[in-house]
Design a protein that fits this description.
This protein is mostly helical and 107 residues long. The protein contains 4 helices and no strands.
C-alpha cells in the first residue's frame, strides 16, 4: 500500500507519510455504534498500527543494512574453491565426464 520502488534504498516518501496520516485521521473520525463495529474498528486500527511499525522498521533497516558480513563471503569462497579443487584433482577415466563435472561445479 505504501510501498515505493526505491524504499529498499532508504529513501523517504512524504506522499506515503501523508497518506498514512490521512488514514489515521479517517480512523479517528470513525464513530462505532455497536459492539461489533467497535471490535472491528479496534482490530483494524491495531492492524494499521502494525503496518506503520513494519514500514518504519523496513525503512530503517534499508538505511543500515550493508549485506552479509565478510566472514560469510570468505566461507562461501573457501568452500567453493575447495569443492572445485577436489573436482580438478579427482581422477575420472572419461575426460568428458571430468570436464562436465568441472563445468557444473564451476558455475
Amino acid at each position: 500500500m505504501f510501498d515505493q520502488p526505491d524504499s529498499d534504498r532508504g529513501n523517504s516518501y512524504p506522499e506515503a507519510d501523508e497518506a498514512l496520516t490521512r488514514l489515521y485521521s479517517a480512523y479517528e473520525e470513525t464513530q462505532a455504534r455497536t459492539d461489533t463495529q467497535k471490535t472491528v474498528l479496534s482490530t483494524s486500527f491495531s492492524n494499521l498500527d502494525s503496518l506503520s511499525q513494519a514500514w518504519t522498521q523496513r525503512v530503517l533497516q534499508s538505511r543500515t543494512d550493508v549485506g552479509p558480513p565478510w566472514s560469510l563471503w570468505a566461507v562461501i569462497g573457501l568452500t567453493s574453491a575447495l569443492l572445485l579443487m577436489c573436482a580438478i584433482i579427482y581422477d575420472v577415466e572419461k575426460p568428458s565426464t571430468h570436464y562436465s563435472m568441472l563445468a557444473i561445479l564451476g558455475v
